[in-house]
């Protein structure tokens, strides 16, 4: 308990330091050419990009400073030093640090999409190695309705490590895909982080106390620095967070989910990101033409955002893409305009879907609407995690 109090104090200081540091570094980013223009504004002033590296660095430094506090007593007793727990924390911070470096390199070098899949996989390797050494548990409990076919549990061996690697890739890229309007990337990350912290606090009284305490040691300073970043990224944004922030956030969530053994619960908190990913799959895998940017289209006359569109030449359609368009149109998930030679549809993102369902809206209202949806999904996640879990598992997820 004492160490958690110290962590909260350090996190408050990290919030204040991050809040103070971001405005002072803005000009350095602009002078270095790491800047852009807000495409959803009439104002064309340069705005620093990749500022997520600032909050990420403060988060890591805070976590480093906390190491001698959480292991303070054990440092005096080398014979009983918790080497496994120490290795877990170092591996977690190493993976997050790698993701910070690789994410910043992506922002500066503008890497291609295939590298966005490789980078999280590489950064997760320290995590997977420590998991193998400390746990090497590759068995999962089968849901009750399926036990008559597969039994109580199934050991999937190496595939479990593939699953954890894919979890890291998904978490980092899922936040990056659901992005593009002021405050959205950071806002959804704040809600996910708060959800995980609430879940950890609920579970502290259980038999997995150490695992959830470990998660809190990472999530509390992350939340503090992220909230400071949100203050500057909220509409109208004074800084852009870049892929750096999305990568660090995704890896942080993956780290606590894997090492604290609640990866399925973490995925429940990612419901909007999962919905956005599934909805985006036809364009992400180029079954449907996908432009480089799928951001909403800004109207300077009305100061409102409209759904961005993509033009599809009918002669380029194959049977699969025709079927997808027909199904999505039947379900009213796309706004389709068709003529003899082409089809125009909205880009398949949750952001554009909100616009076609709710109508053109201001950027601020769009961000608030999406974050409200994230909050509702969090409530659904807790509903699934607790009252409904007993229908599928004898024990908790």
Main attributes of the structure:
globular, mainly alpha, three-stranded antiparallel beta sheet, single chain, 397 residues, two-stranded antiparallel ribbon
Q: Detail the poorly predicted runs.
A: none
The major pleated sheet works out as: 3 strands, antiparallel
Assembly state of the chains shown: single chain
Order of helices and strands: HEEHHHHHEHEHHHHHHEEEHEEHH
**Arithmetic mean pLDDT:** 90
Protein structure class: mainly alpha
User: What's the number of extended β-strand segments?
Assistant: 9
DSSP helix fraction = 55-70%
Shape: globular
As a percent range, the share of strand residues is 5-15%
Give the termini separation. Answer: 26 Å
H/I helix tally = 16
The whole-angstrom Rg is: 22 Å
The strand order across the widest sheet is 7-9-8
């Amino acid at each position: 308990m004492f160490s958690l109090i110290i962590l909260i104090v350090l996190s408050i200081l990290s919030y204040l330091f991050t809040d103070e540091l971001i405005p002072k570094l803005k000009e350095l980013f602009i002078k270095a050419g790491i800047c852009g223009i807000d495409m959803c504004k009439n104002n064309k002033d340069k705005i620093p990009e990749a500022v997520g590296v600032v909050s990420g660095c403060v988060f890591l430094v805070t976590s480093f400073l906390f190491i001698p506090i959480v292991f303070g007593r054990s440092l005096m007793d080398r014979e009983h030093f918790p080497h496994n727990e120490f290795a877990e924390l170092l591996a977690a911070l190493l993976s997050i640090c790698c993701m910070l470096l690789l994410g910043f390199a992506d922002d500066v070098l503008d890497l291609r999409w295939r590298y966005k899949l490789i980078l999280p996989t590489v950064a997760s390797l320290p995590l997977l190695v420590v998991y193998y050494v400390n746990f090497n548990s590759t068995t999962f409990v089968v849901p009750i309705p399926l036990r008559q076919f597969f039994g109580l549990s199934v050991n999937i061996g190496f595939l479990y490590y593939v699953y954890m690697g894919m979890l890291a890739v998904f978490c980092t890229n899922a936040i990056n895909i659901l992005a593009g309007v002021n405050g959205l990337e950071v806002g959804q990350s704040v809600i996910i982080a708060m959800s995980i912290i609430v879940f950890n606090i609920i579970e502290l009284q259980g038999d997995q106390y150490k695992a959830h305490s470990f998660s809190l040691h990472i999530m509390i300073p992350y939340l503090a620095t992220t909230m400071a970043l949100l203050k500057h990224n909220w509409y109208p944004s004074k800084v852009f967070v870049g892929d750096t922030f999305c990568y660090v956030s995704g890896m942080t969530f993956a780290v606590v989910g894997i090492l604290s053994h609640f990866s399925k619960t973490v995925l429940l908190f990612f419901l909007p990101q999962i919905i956005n990913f599934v909805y985006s799959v036809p364009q992400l895998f180029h079954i449907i033409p996908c432009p480089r940017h799928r951001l909403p289209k800004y109207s300077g006359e009305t100061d409102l955002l409209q759904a961005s569109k993509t033009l599809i030449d009918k002669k380029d359609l194959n049977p699969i893409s025709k079927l997808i368009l027909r199904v999505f149109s039947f379900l009213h998930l796309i706004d389709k305009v068709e003529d003899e030679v082409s089809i125009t549809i909205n880009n398949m993102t949750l952001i554009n879907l909100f616009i076609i369902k709710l109508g053109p809206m201001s950027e601020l209202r769009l961000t608030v609407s999406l974050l409200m949806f994230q909050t509702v999904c969090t409530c659904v996640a807790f509903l699934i995690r607790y009252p409904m879990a007993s229908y599928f598992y004898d024990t908790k997820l």
